Amino acid sequence: MRIDIITVLPEMLDNFINLSIVARARKKGLVEIVVHDLRDYTEDKHRRVDDYPYGGFAGMVMQCQPIDACISALTAERHYDEIIFTSPDGQKFDQPMANELSLKGNIIILCGHYKGVDYRIREHLVTREISIGDYVLTGGELAAAAITDAIVRLLPGAIGDAESALSDSFQDHLLSAPVYTRPRDYKGWLVPDVLLSGNDRLIAEWEQQQAFERTQRLRPDLLEK
After folding, report:
1. Is 69 strand, coil or helix?
2. From the candidate CATH numbers 3.40.710.10, 3.40.1280.10, 3.30.420.280, 3.40.190.10, the one assigned to the domain spanning 2-152
3. Other CB atoms closer than 10 Å to residue 195's CB: what's the count?
4. What is the pLDDT of residues 14-47, one digit of tens each?
């Protein structure tokens, strides 16, 4: 898999792609992540990639030319399954979408910035718009990192224990059951006896019951799915 991230702040993503599970997946050759500085594609001698919006609206807007030039250069080299734009008014990102995207071959993620991009980019080049929540960030870099992390950890071999990813929250529209580790007794706070029983059937039943009860209490909206 290859993920190309287009941004005006490449420095924000340097540490992210070189740490933890994402870094290990890259070293294993499971994913190639390339960060592109949008300013490298502008025709402006001052490396400017934004301008004032028509209509007298407040803020600045990312221009068509550098974005088109960058995406055109990438798509001339390979086919991309999705060209994603991170936007607060996009489709809400969730675990099923992460599962779907993890099966793709090549993805471009365009990080929004300022007041967004010239809408013609969204009309003619972007194939999917994604939001990570109902709030506004300074730029789409954190959203791109969240999307990338959620995708990469699902790639076979990215996580040492593959079952761990399958039991994550939201995989079955349920929150995860509580988890515990040693010591068994800490300040009188005890681990549930069933987890120490060695009975796999009882433990599985307890896990499912706990997942359902926690979801019903904390996120009942997930049960509607």
Report:
1. helix
2. 3.40.1280.10
3. 17
4. 999 999 999 999 999 999 999 999 999 999 999 9
